[in-house]
Amino acid sequence: MERVRLASGPLDWSLVDGAVPLVVRILGALALAALLFSRDRRWWTKLLPIAVVVAALLTLLVELTVDDWWQPFPDELPSDVVVWIGVAILGVCLMLCRMPTLRRRGRLGALVAGLLVVVLGLSEVNIHYDNYPTARTMLGPQDTVSLKDATGKKTALLDVPKGKALSEVWQAPADLPAKGTVSTASIPGTTSGFKARDAYVYLPPAYRASPRPPLPVLVLMAGQPGAPQDWITSGQLPDMMDDFAADHAGLAPIVLVVDPLGSSFDNPLCMDSKLGKVQTYLADDVPAWAAAHLQTAEGRTHWAVSGLSNGGTCALQLAVNAPGRYGVFLDISGQDEPTLGSRKQTVDAAFGGDEAAFEKVNPVDVMAREKFPDTAGMFVAGTDDSTYRPQAHKVYEAAKKAGMKAGLVELPGGHSWQVWRPGLGKQLPWLASRLGLTP
Fold first, then answer.
1. I need a surface site. Which of 154, 165, 216, 269 has the fewest CB within 10 A?
2. What DSSP line would sit under 143-174, residue for residue?
3. Are residues 315 and 366 in the same domain?
4. What are the angstrom distances between the C-alpha of 40 and each of 35, 36, 100, 382?
5. What is the pLDDT of residues 255-312, one digit of tens each?
6. How far apart, in whole angstroms, are the C-alpha atoms of residue 348 and residue 350?
7. CA-to-CA distance for 291 and 219, rounded, in angstroms?
8. What is the pLDDT of residue 73?
9. Residue 3 lies in a domain
10. Rounded CA separation 421/241 (Å)
């Protein structure tokens, strides 16, 4: 059950729908009109054309830099994002060109107008990705507690008879907290040598009980570029999991939001290769750390892996390359294969041009060779995601042919948090059932 939260202040007002983006659009449009209009003939014959041409060239330069030269991520900038970046740049160019024609007070007005146009452009880019649903999410994770305080002392684990779901034998104590906790944790690459950024650990209210229920684990990953905190802020994970726990007597999966990248713009492809031993990190180091620091349910049927975009691709990779660890996966807007832009670029960078080495771990190739009758997987894609929706269908069909218990769900939206956030939230009941939390 999804709960409606009332905005408690300006920091909680929606930035993607409602009054705030409407006001930004109105003010931005008026500011753009004010910057475009002038009674000065020189403005129309010289300065305005210069501003427009420079803005167009700079916008083209941004697009070429991101898509062709820098290539921080494999997919190109969406056309509407490029347009709104261009609007923001145009606002700056118009402001600078208007300055010499204005007096002091007019220059201040031009500065304000230029800033409003920039805000308009950035707002529309944010609406496209739904990256910052509120201003509060821009501030980073809030209300984290130390992992030591969150876990408390080790205690006896509740016995769950074979064939029973945890919820069928669980009785919530009267003093159970209403909300779970979020903590940061450093998970070292003891075996892999991989240097990951700090992870985030969500522990549901039931983790505070004694005896402690053996809760299943969800290993969760963000996209690329991205960071673990994206699921905490943009993904609003704590609220999502607390809502689920409130409907299940305090029970919810333990969530480890881990880093498979090393930095926001790196992409070591979630495999063991020349780029790093990321698969070993996620399949060995992360579970070993959890065993040392947490009390959880054990076994592949109680461990799931999920992620969005690059993280979704990684979830599928782990499901087929480390099936002894992860028996359940949720691939949200993932790719049909790990990539750095093209097959050749990927194989050259990761395996020195060895195509066979890549095919040995590439999920579609692995599923063509092997069967996975004991693995359950769900694929989620946006109906407007023209790039990754077809790829989701491809890997879904491959998963079915490999004998997986697979499903495919399409949600309204594109390659953005409009799909990724509900992509996890709406699949929590499915995950809970597959992980033995609920019948």
1. 154
2. S---HHHHH-S--PBPP--TT--HHHH----T
3. yes
4. 12, 11, 11, 49
5. 999 999 999 889 999 999 999 999 999 999 999 999 999 999 999 999 999 999 999 9
6. 6
7. 14
8. 67
9. no
10. 12
Cis peptide before 214 (omega within 30 of 0): no
> In sequence order, what DSSP letters do the residues of 217-241 get, joined into one string?
EEEEE--SS--THHHHTTT-HHHHH
Domain boundary among 129, 153, 182: 129
d(CA 436, CA 160): 10
Give bridge partners of residue 220 from the DSSP assignment: 257, 306
Indicate whether 125 belongs to any domain: yes
pLDDT for 233: 96
Per the structure, the complete domain to which residue 94 belongs is given by: 17-129
What distance in Å separates the CA atoms of residue 112 and residue 106, rounded to the nearest whole number? Answer: 10
Please give the model's pTM, rounded to 2 decimal places. 0.91
Could you report the average pLDDT of every consecutive run of 10 residues in the chain (439 residues)? 61 92 97 93 93 97 89 79 97 95 90 97 95 90 93 95 96 96 98 98 97 98 95 96 98 98 95 98 98 97 98 98 98 96 94 97 98 98 96 98 98 96 98 98
Give, in order, the Cα–Cα distances in Å from 196 to each of 141, 187, 264, 384, 398. Answer: 18, 7, 11, 33, 31
| Alpha carbon of residue 437 to chain centroid | 24
The tally of domains found in the chain comes to 2
Q: Which amino acid is at 10?
A: P
Q: Are 203 and 251 in contact (CB under 8 A)?
A: no
Tokens of 144: 């984290």
Token pair belonging to 221: 């990953």
Return the structure tokens found at 258: 């881990």
For 388-432, what is each residue's pLDDT tens digit?
999 999 999 999 999 999 999 999 999 999 999 999 999 999 999
Q: Under a CB-based contact definition with an 8 Å cutoff, are residues 372 and 300 in contact? A: no
Q: What amino acid is encoded at 47 in this protein?
A: L
> Looking up tokens 């209300």, which residue turns up?
143
We report the CATH number of the domain holding residue 179 as 3.40.50.1820
CB-CB contact of 313 with 338 (8 Å):
yes
**pLDDT reported for residue 133:** 92
